[in-house]
Amino acid sequence: MKIGLIDLDNTGKFPNLALMKISGYYKAKGHEVEWYQSLFGGEYDIVYISKVFSWSLEYPYPINAKKIIKGGIAYGLDNKLPDEIEHHYPDYSLYSFTKNKSYGFLTRGCPRACEFCNVSQQQGRTSRKVADLSEFWKDQKEIILLDPNILACKDWKNLFQQLIDSKAYVEFSQGLDIRLMTIEKAEYLNKIKLKMVHFAWDQMDNKIYEKLKEFRKYFNFQNRQLGVYVLVNFNTTLEEDLERIYKLRDAGYTPYVMRYKDYNCKNAKLEKGDIYNKLARYVNRKHFFNKFKTFEEYLKWAH
Predict the structure, then answer these.
(1) 156-173, pLDDT tens digit by residue?
(2) Based on the structure, what is the number of domains in the chain?
(3) For position 66, which CATH number holds?
(4) Residue 121 within a domain
(5) Is residue 137 situated within a structural domain?
(6) d(CA 194, CA 282)
(7) Closest by alpha carbon to 257, among 239, 233, 273?
(8) In the chain, what is the straight-line distance between the N-terminal and C-terminal CA atoms, in Å?
(9) Full-prediction pTM beyond 0.90?
């Protein structure tokens, strides 16, 4: 068979894991797999179209295929790969920037059910182990984990040990849940080869801040290696956002602003959207954040 693939997000920075698994599965069976070519590809037996972001545009041209399959959370929360594809080793050759990198989920699900996140709806409210590291890693130098809440999984110790034993650099792409941190978990985290680790402070909950302060002394990382994702433009005021940002800096963490519905902020012409763009520029560009003690000082300079 001839299989065509279309990545509608096409960020150029992050691969589509589902398409890599699909490609790996069909190539292992001896089928031809390539990025869909509208002009010179001829007829395809199946074309898989995938997108994660709802704002990614649809493919604008007719598709010459016997069968078209659309997938990804942008097409619905019940959209899932068959098990034989879900657990297949990804075809990393699809993306040039994945060289020496591996991507995957060790766990799925999250007990939090946050309003701004659809993970609990799509993956369930229990964090559970779904794979061993060997399912998507074969001695690459870097491992990028997509797990929504690995600290909530009862098998966390076994999974952390796999990461330790790999001796590869590990990146948790999602902010770890500091509310679930224990001294034992911190000790295991310290043994993982990390360039940086991120936690999350998504809403104005001071219990999260108290936990971050409590466990700072247990982490063997410099301040610049301890990041915290700070969600803005959701249900907090600008004053509450700044309070969280300044508290994190004082507690020995490096805040990173995450704009809710980021695509709206980037294209914003309204003052509300623009102020969050400026806030992100101030906090996330560390030379600004280190130079100006407050956001107000930055705004006066940038005016």
Answers:
(1) 999 999 999 999 999 999
(2) 1
(3) 3.40.50
(4) no
(5) no
(6) 25
(7) 233
(8) 59
(9) yes
